[in-house]
Amino acid sequence: MNKNHFILLLLIIFAAFFIRVTNLTFPAFTSDEARVAFRGYTLATTAKDELGRVMPILFNSSGDYQLPAVSYITALGTLVFGKTDLGARMPFILISILIVVLIYKISDIFFLKKEFRLLAALVAAFTPSLIFFSKIPNETIVFTFSLILLFYLLTKEKINFLSVVFTVIFSIAVSKIAWWILIPFTVLTLTFFQPNLRKRTKISVILIVLFLTTVAVVLFLRVPQATRSFLENDFLLLQENSITVAMNRSRGQGLESHWPNFVEKILFNKLQFIAVGVLNWLSHLDLAVFFGQFDEEGKMGFSSMGAFPKIAIFPFIVGIIALIRKSDVKLRALLFYPLVLTFPLVFVYPRNRQDIAVIVLPFLIFIIALGLIKLNRLLKIAVLSLMIFEVIINMFFVSPQIKQTNYSRPAWVKQIVEDGYNLSVNSKVALSDDFTSDIAPFLEWYTPLVAKDDFKNIQFPYKFHQSQVSGIKIIGNDDTFYFCGLDKSTHIFASKRDLEEIQKWLNVTAEKTVVKTYKDDLGNNIVYLLRSTICVK
Amino acid sequence: MRKIISKQSLLLLSIILIGGVFRFYRLTDFPVQLNHDEISQLYDAISIAETGKDVYGNFMPTIFPSVNDFKSPFYTYITSLFYLFLGNKEVIIKLPGVIFGWLTIIAVYFFVLKLFKNWRIAICASFFTAISPFEIFFSRKSFENVAGIFFMLFGFASLLAYIDKKSNTRMLYIGFLFLAIATYTYFSHAILIPFLLFSFVLIYREHFLNNVKRVLLPVLVLGVLLVPLVLIIITNPGARYRSKTVFITQDVNLERNIEYSKSENYLTSFLLKNKAILDFSFNRYLEQFNVDFIFANGLDFTGERLLNQGLLLLIQLPLFVLGLIYLIRLNGFKQAKMFILAWILLGMLPSGLTFESHSPHRSIMVFTMLNIICAVGFYWFIQITKKSKRFFYPLICLFALALIFNFMYFIHMYFVNFPFERSQHIQYPFKQVALYAWSQYQNFDSIIFDPQFGDFEPKIGAGAYYYFAYYGQMPPDKFQKEYRLGDKPREVLFDKFSIREVYWLTDKDLKNTLVIASPWSVREKDIEDKNKIIKRFFFYNGKLAFYAIKL
Q: In whole angstroms, what is the distance from residue B532 CA to residue B504 CA?
């Protein structure tokens, strides 16, 4: 590498780092991310998770079991930087930077111009989805890193079996998606990128990966709710009732219209599940997803951006055309990765799992870089400038996005839980459970609360919601309210649901009960602090 | 040579016949009723034919106000011609659409033949046009865009014929004439076709610039033909009103995004607002290329996300991919490929810049081109499989089976599921209500109809008075004189009919009146004497739509 090249690479890495640490506290955490952040902190300081369990292998989340790697990575961050946004986010920022470096390194294998490597690294540095996922504790960015690392290791001239084994184990410990795609990924990579490798070596590598993923699946199946976890998260299609209902309805309408029964059975049968699954898979790979809007809700990406900046569609299409016309096998192989890596999407209908599409981004980055080198200098500069400009605009003007994600990423909840904690020092406090999806993680992360061992005996908690956090009561739908004496009084942070309940059953007006009103990011009243003469039963 | 010609013609004829069967089969029965667009255009056409005015008394309008959606005039005027020749039949509103849709099969053939100079691809393209779900659906739906596509295809085929043989300037005149007619058929065509023509001339510029003198007069003729259209757009407020009401800025999601971008700093607000509009528009445009939309649910027959019907058959998806790859790898035909790209990119603009998330009726020209790409893919598929004698016939048989299965699925969706699931979207059973109301004409002093109805949620059925006017065979001149707006909410009055919101608390005390309303307007439990319900009307799926109450 010559000196200029090295300097440019350093500049790209610095720019990548800068753009990721800018506005560090954005985006605000979801409840799951807050849970992981707090968990990392408790693991680092007490070797226990948020439920009081000692160094567990499987963790709790709102939708599924969570594999261990992400939580322990977060623990490293909080160990160094403490219970802060920096501590929770830095490990993932660094992992994202490593992705940029790996993409630069891997670009060598395509034997293109030297600028291809720098362009690929630059695009990776300014890929909105990679930036977004680098700023929150999540498995997506970690798995993307481990996958691209595995790709790098498998495409080296001499395959280091030990490195491959550790990377595979690491991938398996990050995400369940790894269990399904590592085999086809390995086969694809070895086929196209190691054509001269001995057959025996290839088979050995594939068998090792197969063995490790099989062990992971078998061990997981021994966990109590494993089957439920698979059916509710990875294989939703298999228990999706709506398809069967729609088919039966269509068939019934056909019979009512005097169509023969055998024709109805031919047209509407279990094959529909395959068609539905395949279409669901392909719909996650649309141009609109990658270049328009990755996630409308803003939970998995900037709400007004695709996975890539909009202008990148132009070099992407140029790159695709170049790939199809070019005869180089390695470059052509890039076209297969988006399909192979995302095929688990077939089984997740009707859920939107846009995060799975993130793992193909490095391969699409190569295609974009290929398109960029085909452009003339002026166009190249224009495209790159517009890409960087769009990313910067979205990073510096975040208020529209904060409003878009008002409920999924409630930045406003911090003040509420801090006030709640301050009051809990001297008196009882209760919070409604419905003004966010799960209030407990926010309480744990944003306040000095220490995790108790109240739930340490739950060996494998699955979708577990805490009803109590260190003495602070979390009010559920079934809880009721009553007037009580001052010695039993509770500071209630009530949602609209609970305020209406209180007004209805205790026959009081808002003016007489509400002491303080909290607003969300849209300026709507969201939480009401009530006078402390009401208790929760 | 003679054998090849006759094989070509025979194939084309068979395809035309197949296409005709699926377009004309039970045309009067499916869709199960004329929708509000059809009934309004039909009655306006009769009104024009008999009086020279539309139902509102506008003499030979250049834009029809219709149900406040300001329709382009072409389809209504051509229907009035059919009326003059065939008389008053419901089917006359469908005939222009279905005939142009049928003729599109031939237009596609000639267009593709001129574009790729390959009769096999042309035959494949016409075959896919003949059996394409969107082609069949919109042909049977009396949709004016279909006529526009026909004229566009023949127009550009003629221009391509001129390019092949420049001495034949007649083709230039024919091409421009067809394109000029196409601009009058549908609003978006008025903007799109000039841009597309400009792209065509730019792409094939050496053929035009080398012979400017030959081209000049036909271009002038084109300009003269377009002058009335330009005047209509500039002078008619209806045209501007329509553009404004359908533009993307009417989308509630965009309005919300703009609201979120507001800031205390004026400059920041201005920048973020425009950014929000650009982002939203770009994303809306890209969403038109959504795989689900094109191959799974674009025609929206059932309301399901994926157990539905796309604009193209699902089996065409791999053919489309093959077609794209073939075209990219093909050396030569660069101009043809660029024109296809321009056609698709420009053609999606109307759908991409309106307030609806998807509006396939605005992008039919794009799907026609996607069909052509599928035909290229099929042609390549045959070329590849032919190389292996062992696998050729099994693969072809497999493909044929899959195609038949997919097509049968579409037929089932269209003739069975679509009426059951979506009858209310075409205002069913307004026709039955209108016929019944007229059958009771002599028995009541006044007849009130509230068009608020719906299976799952209430909506106001547009153009209800058109149904009453047409099915009561009310003379248009009489309707023009009697039509007026009333004082009550959404009230339209003519003869003894009042189309308005029913307010049962007061309306129940009316005397000698027939009230036809849905359970959304009048709850059955509020009707004290159930014997007063003298008739019930149902959606196609058997659920209650309206009841007629005798007061």
A: 14
State both tokens at A343. Answer: 């095929």
- Give the chain A residue nearest B303 (alpha carbons): A246
Q: Are B94 and B263 in contact (CB under 8 A)?
A: no
A508 interface with B at CB cutoff 8 Å: no
- Three-state secondary structure call for residue A64: coil
Is A308 an interface residue toward B (CB < 8 Å)? Answer: no
Residue A78 in tokens: 């909080």
The alpha-helical segments, DSSP class H, found in B456-498 are 464-471, 476-482
- Backbone torsions φ then ψ of B42, nearest 5 degrees: -65, -50
Tell which residue, A75, A76, A84, A92, has the closest CA to residue A39. A75
Interchain proximity B307–A243, CB inside 8 Å: yes
Q: What end-to-end distance do the CA atoms of chain A give, in Å?
A: 70
pLDDT in tens, A462-509: 988 887 888 888 998 888 888 887 666 788 999 999 998 888 888 877
Q: Is B401 on the interface with A (CB under 8 A)?
A: no
**A321 close to B (CB below 8 A):** yes
Q: For residue range B106-129, what is the model confidence (pLDDT) as tens digits? A: 999 999 999 999 999 999 999 999
* Cα distances (Å, whole numbers) of residue B232 to B5, B176, B238, B339: 46, 20, 9, 29
Distance CA(B94)–CA(A329), nearest Å, equals 53
Nearest by CB to residue B296, choosing from A279, A292, A310, is A279
How far A75 CA sits from the closest chain B CA (Å)? 36
Q: Which of A364, A403, A389 minimizes the C-alpha distance to A130?
A: A364
Quick check: A238 pLDDT over 60?
yes
Concatenated DSSP letters of A166-206: HHHHHHHHH-THHHHHHHHHHHHHHHHH-TTS-HHHHHHHH
pLDDT digits (tens, 9 = 90+) for B139-191: 999 888 999 999 999 999 999 999 988 777 889 999 999 999 999 998 889 88
| Interchain contact A287–B (C-beta under 8 A) | yes
Q: Strand B497-499 and strand B492-494: pairing?
A: antiparallel
Q: Are A518 and A416 in contact (CB under 8 A)?
A: yes
Cβ within 8 Å, pair A288-B286: yes
User: Based on C-alpha coordinates, what's the Rg of chain A?
Assistant: 26
Spans of all domains in chain A: 3-234+273-404, 239-269, 413-536
Q: Which residue of B has its CA nearest to A258?
A: B416
Burial class (CB in 10 A: 0-12, 13-18, 19+), B122: buried
In chain A, what's the furthest Cα-to-Cα distance? 82
Residue A55: burial class (beta carbons within 10 Å; 0-12, 13-18, 19+): exposed
Work out the minimum CA distance from B283 to partner chain A, whole angstroms: 4
B283 interfaces chain A, CB cutoff of 8 Å: yes
Residues 251-270 of A with CB under 8 A from B: 253-254, 257, 259, 263, 266-267
DSSP β-bridge partners for residue B121: none
> Angle at CA B215, nearest 5°, toward B213 and B218?
120
Whether A280 and chain B come into contact, CB under 8 Å, resolves to yes
What is the SS3 assignment for A400? helix
Pairing of strands B544-550, B533-538: antiparallel
Q: Helix axis angle, A177-193 relative to A139-154, nearest 10°?
A: 30
B470 burial (CB, 10 Å; 0-12 / 13-18 / 19+) is buried
Q: Give the Cα separation of B399 and B422 in Å (integer).
A: 31
- Which residues is B550 bridged to in the sheet? B514
Question: A267 vs B282: CB contact, 8 Å cut-off?
Answer: no
Strand positions, DSSP E, B368-519: 446-449, 452-453, 459-460, 484-485, 492-494, 497-499, 513-517
Q: At residue A97, what is the residue type?
A: I
